[in-house]
Design goal:
Blueprint (H helix, E strand, L loop, with lengths): L4 H9 L9 H27 L5 E7 L5 H23 L1 H6 L1 H5 L6 H21 L6 E7 L5 H23 L1 H6 L1 H5 L7 H18 L4 H26 L21 H4 L12 E2 L9 E2 L7 H19 L8 H17 L7 E4 L2 E4 H36 L5
Length: about 400
């Protein structure tokens, strides 16, 4: 496995890089970047279709810099320069454990102070140059696709918060044993927690900006499918514990074309140091599982890429807003429900049955998808019927 991105690059190309980028974090970031681009494309297309309309907002021009703006810029630049300077002067420490470094107090006070003062003065001066004796309000047209990065940022922040909260609920004993480490660890993210929290935050934000939720949700459907698949690639590459149960089955002959590691894998050098020590290995990540397990992240990546291809190929054929997202919920719920049967996960004891968090949530998503699909189609047919009867009725004299 490759805990850091440089481990992957070194393993493939034989180099000796030491980059401060964790593999799992890299793939999560990649998922959001790719997702944001796809969302931008879809929002722009739906505006051309007339499903989403631009809005206007009033922007104040000619105002001087406020004390709050100056203070905010000073604090942000100070923190960034404080940490960046120390990252350069103590690069090995930063690169070997970027997470611990970022949450430590290590930094350069004077570099942070000088950079913060310089930028704050520059910001104040730039505002003074455009200051008017009497600030004016101007109406500005705002397109939904222009807010893509804001929407993606909100989804990322609240998605990670939700994913961490649901993960702590799922791993309560680990949280109690090490609450600080659990909360600020970049591993241990529960997808459904992230999906629920991100959905609430995005619906709130887009509602304020009058972006209709049905075409917006359809725009998100292929994005979520592909983003989930990319994220699972990060789980596989890093070996973050998101793997399957021990696979004691013999690989069937009709699967001989498939590499053995796709059938059973022991995750050497996994990032969570799970298992037994690898003979002769020296270093931080020298553990591997004693028995091969199902590499479920690979299976999920493959399935969700297929789901993405299906959703992307049919998105222009579906004319009823909200239906595409309903189809996504069905696909996602079915995929997650069945993968849970061969995946390692914590369970809850409900009516003497052991069930996982995902096994509880995924059927609900399937049900919401089916009911939503049915209601949306029914209402669309009723709407067309009402329009038809209205057009055919005689005009009263």
């Amino acid at each position: 496995m490759y805990p850091k991105l440089s481990d992957l690059i070194n393993g493939v190309f034989g180099t000796h890089l030491n980059l401060p980028i964790m593999s799992y974090g890299f793939f999560v970031a990649l998922a959001f970047l790719v997702g944001a681009w796809l969302l931008y494309v879809e929002l722009k297309r739906k505006e051309k279709q007339g499903l989403i309309h631009p809005t206007t907002k009033k922007v104040s021009l000619g105002k001087p810099a406020s004390m709050l703006e100056l203070l905010f810029n000073f604090v942000v630049v100070f923190i960034l320069a404080y940490k960046i300077a120390a990252a350069f002067t103590d690069y090995d420490n930063f690169a070997n454990n970027p997470q611990e470094f970022l949450f430590s107090t290590e930094g350069s006070f004077w570099v942070g102070l000088i950079a913060a003062l310089a930028y704050t003065i520059y910001f104040w001066y730039s505002k003074e140059k455009t200051k008017l004796d009497k600030p004016i309000l101007k109406n500005v047209t705002v397109h939904a696709y222009e807010q893509t990065w804001t929407i993606a940022f909100i989804a990322a922040v609240f998605g990670i918060i939700g994913a961490k909260i649901f993960d702590q609920l799922e791993n309560w004993h680990s949280f109690v044993a090490d609450p600080w480490g659990s909360l600020f660890s970049f591993s241990g993210l529960t997808f459904y927690g992230g999906l629920i929290f991100a959905a609430i935050a995005v619906i709130w934000y887009t509602g304020k900006h009058k972006i209709p939720w049905k075409p917006l949700s359809d725009s998100f459907a292929p994005v979520l499918a592909l983003g989930y698949g990319i994220g699972r690639m990060g789980c596989q590459v890093a070996g973050d514990g998101d793997w399957g149960i021990v696979n004691t089955f013999t690989k069937p002959h009709w699967l001989n074309f498939m590499p053995d590691w796709l059938w059973s894998y022991n995750y050497p050098h996994n990032i969570i140091n799970e298992g037994v020590r690898i003979p002769g290995c020296m270093g931080e990540h020298c553990m591997q599982l004693p028995q091969g397990v199902f590499p479920t992240p690979v299976y999920e990546t493959l399935m969700m890429v297929v789901v993405f291809i299906v959703l992307w190929s049919i998105r222009k054929r579906i004319k009823i807003p909200g239906v595409l997202f309903s189809i996504y919920l069905i696909f996602n719920g079915v995929e997650r429900f069945f993968i849970e049967h061969i995946r390692v996960d914590n369970t809850y004891d409900i009516f003497n049955h052991k069930v996982t968090q995902a096994e509880l949530i995924s059927p609900v998503l399937v049900l919401i998808g089916i009911v939503g699909w049915y209601l949306l189609v029914k209402r669309a047919k009723q709407g067309r019927g009402n329009s038809s009867s209205t057009s055919e009725s005689p005009t009263p004299e």
